[in-house]
Design goal:
It contains 20 helices and 10 strands. By secondary structure, it is an alpha/beta fold. It folds into 2 domains: about 220 residues, 3-Layer(aba) Sandwich (D-Maltodextrin-Binding Protein, domain 2), CATH 3.40.190; about 190 residues, 3-Layer(aba) Sandwich (D-Maltodextrin-Binding Protein, domain 2).
Length: about 425
């Protein structure tokens, strides 16, 4: 069993690798008319290593066997996925960029702005592509401005509510359900908390990192709020919807004392696994650790409000690039469509322990076998339906995340009030967006 991928880190990588994706050089024009039988060599950068890279190399070899005129030069492209953005920037300037590259979803707006990407909007509208089988958040991520579709989803995840059944049973509290409201959540967290045993009902990151931030976005969205304005130039998370969402967390942490406040982003998972925390919001990567620890747990959708149980997702993508060559464009699209089809994805993402890309894979024997090894993975896959909104992919998002992450951390530690803290954070975020 492989440890599932964690797409959260994609935003963190943007903060250290952000570059201007532009350059004067470009590929020399190639075929102007499509010849499906012409010999073609595609360059594919995967950003992967070890088992993941081996799987992808094997799939590329199969595609070559099915299409003898196509040669796929597949490599990781860089020492790590985080290094790919810098590598892409340099390759754009030198005119030697790939046909297809793995990319963190947080880079999508920068990639589109490079004017190097293909637009496959018309192709993915074809019924046999099954575009609607990808989650709404995943589709939005490869359509960062809504004007172009620059690739396919590559890896998906989402946050779900994971509950420790040992802690619930000891407290005599009924397990969470998919219909839970914010009030149900708060009440249960308080009932699970026992200061005499250092047991908490819930845990939340106060490191100020993207871990802090992205766990807040579902509260905002469920309550009808938005992170940014429609034109992505100003912050809007300081709305009443945001204030109410942060007030819920403040009340749980300060008034009820039911929230373990984690400065490290990692300690809460360890405490949950050792039966000292009743609930956490996390993703498929957490299930591997819980299985290794022998923790008894269950998984359900996030508590919601007014029937809205939206979650947050961190999709990564396969970006397709334009070399002004009809043959390369055609086969880059065909290979990526093939790679992200259900038949291949069960041998890639599912085999590797990630969530399936498509809703049509949930009932496959391959995924059900993974569910046997990682109970609750099926609930997380189905929770993809609640991933309706994509995190912003604009370059200023790093500053947005830092501003609100700091504000949330201060409020949950009793150092501020929700409205004032969010208003100050929004002002900081506006400056980051303007840079």
């Amino acid at each position: 069993m492989s440890r599932p991928h964690r797409a959260l880190t994609s935003v963190l990588a943007l903060g250290t690798a952000a570059v201007v994706l532009s350059g004067c050089a470009g590929s020399s024009p190639g075929a102007t008319e499509l010849d499906e039988e012409a010999d073609v060599t595609l360059t594919v950068w995967t950003g992967q290593a070890d088992q993941a890279q081996t799987i992808l190399e094997g799939l590329a070899a199969e595609f070559e066997e099915e299409h003898p005129n196509v040669t796929i030069d597949i490599s990781s492209g860089a020492p790590s996925t985080e290094d790919l953005l810098q590598k892409l920037s340099a390759s754009f300037a030198g005119g030697n960029y790939p046909d297809v590259s793995y990319a963190f979803g947080s880079w999508a707006s920068q990639l589109e702005a490079s004017n190097r990407t293909l637009d496959i909007t018309e192709q993915v509208a074809e019924p046999d592509v099954g575009w609607e089988e990808f989650s709404e958040a995943a589709r939005q991520t490869v359509q960062p401005t809504g004007k172009k579709t620059i690739g396919f989803p590559a890896v998906v995840d989402n946050l779900s509510l994971i509950y420790n059944t040992t802690v619930f049973d000891a407290a005599g509290v009924e397990y969470p359900t998919e219909d839970w409201t914010w009030d149900d959540f708060r009440e249960a967290a308080a009932e699970l908390t026992d200061p005499s045993t250092n047991t908490y009902g819930y845990a939340y990151s106060v490191s100020g990192s993207e871990e802090t931030t992205w766990q807040f976005w579902p509260h905002l969205w469920q309550n009808g709020g938005d992170i940014l304005s429609d034109d992505a130039t100003t912050a809007e998370f300081d709305s009443d919807a945001g204030v109410e969402g942060l007030e819920l967390l403040r009340a749980m942490a300060i008034d009820d004392g039911s929230v373990y406040l984690d400065q490290t982003d990692t300690r809460f998972g360890q405490l949950f696994a050792s039966d000292q925390i009743g609930m956490i919001t996390s993703g498929p990567w957490q299930l591997y650790d819980l299985g290794e620890a022998g923790t008894q747990y269950g998984v359900t959708t996030l508590p919601g409000t007014d029937g809205d149980h939206q979650t947050v997702s961190g999709p990564d993508i396969w970006a397709l690039f334009n070399h002004r060559d009809a043959n390369r464009e055609y086969w880059a699209y065909e290979f990526t469509r093939w790679l992200t089809s259900a038949d291949q994805d069960v041998r890639w993402n599912v085999a590797y322990g990630n969530l399936p890309l498509r809703s049509s894979e949930i009932d496959t024997p391959e995924f059900q076998a993974q569910v046997e090894a990682l109970p609750g993975l099926d609930v997380m896959a189905a929770n993809g339906e609640n991933a309706k909104t994509a995190r912003p992919t604009v370059s200023g998002y790093v500053g947005v995340s830092e501003a609100i992450g700091s504000a949330i951390s201060e409020v949950l530690q009793g150092q501020g009030e929700p409205r004032e803290a969010l208003e100050a954070a929004a002002a900081e975020a506006d400056e980051a967006l303007a840079d």
